[in-house]
Automatic annotation (TrEMBL):
Protein name: 2-aminoadipate transaminase
Residue span(s) of domain HTH gntR-type: 16-84
Keyword Cell cycle found: no
Matching Pfam families: Aminotran_1_2, GntR
Taxonomic superkingdom: Bacteria
Source organism per UniProt: Clostridium formicaceticum
Entries under PROSITE patterns matching the protein: HTH_GNTR
Family: In the C-terminal section; belongs to the class-I pyridoxal-phosphate-dependent aminotransferase family.
Alphabetical list of InterPro entries matching this protein: Aminotransferase_I/II_large (IPR004839), HTH_trans_reg/aminotransferase (IPR051446), PyrdxlP-dep_Trfase (IPR015424), PyrdxlP-dep_Trfase_major (IPR015421), PyrdxlP-dep_Trfase_small (IPR015422), Tscrpt_reg_HTH_GntR (IPR000524), WH-like_DNA-bd_sf (IPR036388), WH_DNA-bd_sf (IPR036390)
Gene from which this protein is expressed: lysN_2
EC number(s) from the headed UniProt entry: 2.6.1.39
PANTHER family referenced in this protein's UniProt entry, alphabetically: HTH-TYPE TRANSCRIPTIONAL REGULATORY PROTEIN GABR
Gene Ontology terms for molecular function: 2-aminoadipate transaminase activity; DNA binding; DNA-binding transcription factor activity; pyridoxal phosphate binding
UniProt keyword terms in alphabetical order: Aminotransferase, DNA-binding, Pyridoxal phosphate, Transcription, Transcription regulation, Transferase
Length: 491
């Protein structure tokens, strides 16, 4: 009880409600790790006596914590903390749509996770990275912990310039900006270029994390429907004229969530349109390396002779997301704004990790790793393709991607993928319902399955089980309608 004695409530009538003050104090204990997963909260009467408040105040604050899944009630036993600061892989309760809507899922043990497009941790080159980290510390000593220049550690930028030379992205080293992950790249581009009320264009559907950034800047977002080979060009041109957007955000290779790769012809046409209307393009290249069968994954940036494309490259999917490392290639036109936005955001990306990545790239371990990731992802990809062909009910529409980790499906007759999710999560299979990727966030029939976080056995078993569940789901009565048909079918 000692901890709880520290709670000070302001009982002045003009202050915040007591139950909210109490909720905040308790939440603070949980978030700071002072209360750990499994700890029991004091019985309601005891706490109310101690704090000299009404029972209802304590009950209401516990209820607020429960609604956030920070605590849970055991009938007849009390209220327990469900969240562990140091191991937040799991709340004590299973995944809920509300969490997935925020871009997170909390997994129960043994859940087959088709929802996450993040690689499983067993693929990470931990030992190799430990070696380069130690080497950097021995070599650079304290300098590894000093402020790094905002644009990025020069030798790393040099190594990255050489790396993208191989992909025909020819740029000056001064146009490379190191970022703490692609998400930060999107954020600083928005910070540097957008004013409140500006228009931004995205693909429909698109990556939720980017939409959230643009919304946070007060931008108005316009989506352009995707077709099998990329954006609908008529719609794109019409909307450029109508809205004069600041930029178009897109993923031309293995698009998230649809897995679509644009045809070379469309990539070229989009660049022509960009030139005609002086439109900036933000190319999010989060995955083009996972091309298994052909060379159709060339980047827009490598075709960009007019310097209109801001290129974002992430190392999260192909190396380790926790490194928070990526880089931008910034056109001259917006160089000042974007570099300033990075500086005002966090001064620089971790110098230690930049140095370690530079050494990792230089040593050639990187080439081995990328080959290893390629084979691992390809095995998963092929297992997925085989399982889909074998088990997925015929009524479900899809077009298979040519690489990457994302597969996009459509349920028949406007059935809701959110409703399907609510059913499968109980059987410990999760995926990403399609509404997460659309602007209006309305329930849709679309859903995304990712192969990044599942192994081959899980894929085989999971797709069979999921297909069986879809069969049951399709035959169930009393479905509610999704009204998704306003979107052009994209696959
Ligand atoms: C399309 C896309 N862009 C950016 C990101 C964020 O990547 P990072 O971890 O590099 O910030 C993700 C993460 O899933 C993504 O799917």
């Amino acid at each position: 009880m000692k901890l709880f004695e520290k709670i000070k409530l302001d009982k002045d009538v003009s202050s915040q409600h007591l139950y909210i003050q109490l909720y905040k104090a308790l939440k603070g204990f949980i978030v700071e790790g002072k209360l750990k997963k499994g700890d029991r909260l004091p019985p309601i009467r005891k706490l109310s006596e101690m704090l000299e408040v009404n029972n209802v105040t304590v009950v209401s604050s516990y209820r607020m914590l429960e609604e956030e899944k920070l605590v849970y009630k055991k009938i007849g036993s009390g209220t327990y903390v469900a969240f562990d600061l140091h191991n937040n892989e799991g709340f004590d309760h299973g995944p809920k749509t509300s969490l997935i809507e925020q871009g997170h899922i909390q997994l129960e043990k043994n859940t087959i996770n088709f929802a996450s497009a993040t690689p499983s941790t067993d693929l990470f080159p931990v030992d190799d990275f430990k070696e380069v980290l130690n080497e950097v510390l021995d070599r650079d000593k304290g300098s590894a912990f000093g402020y790094q220049e905002s644009q990025g550690y020069y030798p790393l930028r040099l190594a990255l310039k050489e790396y993208i030379d191989n992909y025909n992205i020819i740029t000056d080293i001064n146009n490379i900006q190191i970022i703490s992950g692609a998400q930060q790249g999107i954020d600083i581009i928005a910070k540097g270029l957008l004013n409140y009320g500006d228009y931004v264009m995205i693909e429909g559907p698109s990556y939720r994390g980017a939409m959230a950034v643009f919304e946070s800047r007060g931008a108005k977002i316009i989506d352009i429907p995707l077709e099998k080979d990329g954006l609908n060009l008529q719609d794109l041109e019409k909307k450029i004229i109508a809205y004069q957007p600041k930029f178009l955000y897109m993923m031309p290779n293995f698009q998230n969530p649809t897995g679509i790769s644009y045809s070379l012809e469309k990539k070229k046409k989009i660049l022509e349109i960009a030139e005609k209307y002086h439109l900036l393009i933000v190319e999010d290249d989060y995955l083009s390396d996972l091309n298994f069968y052909n060379n159709e994954n060339i980047t827009l940036k490598s075709l960009d002779h007019k310097d209109l494309v801001i290129y974002i490259k992430s190392f999260s999917k192909i190396l380790m997301p926790g490194l928070r490392l990526g880089f931008l290639v910034v056109p001259r036109l917006v160089y000042g704004e974007v570099l300033l936005a990075k500086h005002t955001t966090d001064i620089s990306t971790s110098g230690l990790l930049q140095r370690a990545l530079e050494l990792y790239l230089k040593k050639g371990t990187w080439q081995q790793h990328i080959r290893y990731m390629g084979t691992q992802y390809m095995e998963r990809f092929e297992a997925m393709v085989r399982s889909i062909k074998e088990y997925m009910p015929q009524e479900v529409e899809y077009t298979l991607p040519k690489g990457g980790v994302n597969f996009w499906f459509k349920l028949p007759k406007g059935l809701s993928s959110k409703e399907l999710y609510e059913m499968t999560v109980k059987q410990k299979i999760v995926f990403a319902p399609g509404h997460l990727f659309f602007l209006n966030n309305k329930e849709t029939s679309y859903f995304r399955l990712s192969t990044a976080a599942v192994n081959v056995d899980e894929i085989k078993y999971g797709i069979k089980e999921l297909s069986d569940m879809i069969n049951v789901f399709m035959r169930k009565e009393n479905h509610h309608s999704t009204q998704t048909n306003e979107y052009t079918p994209i696959l």
